[in-house]
Amino acid sequence: MPVRMVAMAWIALLFAPALGAQERTDRIELAPDAVRDMDTVVVTGVQPGPGLWRIRDGDGHTLYLLGTQSPLPRDMDWRADEVRQVLGEAGMVLGSQGVTVNADVGFFRGLSLLPSAMKAMKNPDGATLDEVLPADLYARWSVLKQRYLGRDRGVEKKRPMIAVYELYKAALERNGLREGGVVGPVVEAALKARGIKTTPAQLRLKIEDPRQALADFRGEGLKPQDLECVRTTLDIIERDLPQIAARANAWATGDLDALRALPERRRQVDACLAAWSGSETARKLGFTDIERRSQQAWLEVAEKALREQAVSFATLSIDDLLREDGFPLADLRARGYRVLAPDEPEETEPGEGTDAVQVETAAP
């Protein structure tokens, strides 16, 4: 779910399709005030992006992996020739790693649940952020909220985890960055042109009684994990925007060495994921150990692709792909597959290289 951060908050996870249909009406834009939040210049124009990782089995079947990064420069155009070439030959394209929830909610029932979902996004008993956050944390929030969200009063009634994510997105936008809109459209267009669909690779969870689940969540108060998610995200907005921009630039220009040198955002991801998975409602529903289970689900589909297809394609977080000792590269090596990074040369062995599509890896 690349985006895993607060977008993994379970209320958004369950009802994102319905909530997405609601247009925001409470946002009041700040007048331009020439606030300069960082010195890092965000790249623009046509950029190559990173090359592809290659996962090989003994028969020469190849799973091509594109490492994705969020956010990315808002005004870049991705030169995706290598990816389009692979997508033109791929027999299977894996969906993203993450979680999908089946609550057996049809369209009209979803509309009936929408008011409950909207209430669940707000603090219990109509509380506002100044009432639920510690004074020092609320003071930091207020300064940044005024800068990036202006006189948006509605956000003050939302749960801290959801409110701080809105603040984070606004800060990215002000600094020439955006989440989404770069890789997804390229993949979707290529699949549409061929008339094929992605193969689901997410962990599937089911909620038998979504109305009760929403009621349970609405009754939950603030937890230490919620505060840590807010605190960590405010830290990033206050201090780490230049580093985030540098990571976005490195992805855009295909500079793997720079990406390897820059620290990951795992602390923020882990803190906000814990705020979701640590809720009593999530535990009651069995939504525990989500990261490991979703990784296992993805690996099973990846192995199926390697068994059955000469060429297949998937996207994963580039942070995952740059870690040699974790998911998915260490897992795939342990299962007997050969892994080549974008900046590693091909090593043709007897019986290999005849079926896999031949592409020139992008220089980092």
Give the SSE map.
Layout: H1 10-20, E1 45-47, E2 53-56, E3 62-68, E4 72-73, E5 76-78, H2 81-89, E6 92-93, E7 99-102, H3 107-120, H4 129-132, H5 135-148, H6 160-174, E8 177-178, H7 183-194, E9 203-206, H8 210-218, H9 224-253, H10 256-261, H11 266-277, H12 280-285, H13 290-308, E10 311-317, H14 318-322, H15 329-334, E11 338-340
Parallel strand pairs: 1-5, 3-10, 6-10, 7-9
Antiparallel strand pairs: 2-3, 2-11, 4-8
Helix pairs in contact: 1-3, 2-7, 3-8, 5-6, 5-9, 6-9, 9-11
What does this structure look like?
A hairpin with a 5-residue loop joins strand 2 (53-56) and strand 3 (62-68). The chain has one domain (6-19, 45-340). With 364 residues, the protein is an alpha/beta fold. The protein starts with 9 loop residues before the first helix and ends in a 24-residue tail after the last strand. A 5-stranded mixed beta sheet has the order 6-10-3-2-11. It has a two-stranded parallel sheet with strand order 1-5. It has helices at 10-20, 81-89, 107-120, 129-132, 135-148, 160-174, 183-194, 210-218, 224-253, 256-261, 266-277, 280-285, 290-308, 318-322, 329-334; strands spanning 45-47, 53-56, 62-68, 72-73, 76-78, 92-93, 99-102, 177-178, 203-206, 311-317, 338-340. The protein is built from 15 helices and 11 strands. Helix content is 47%, strand content 11%.
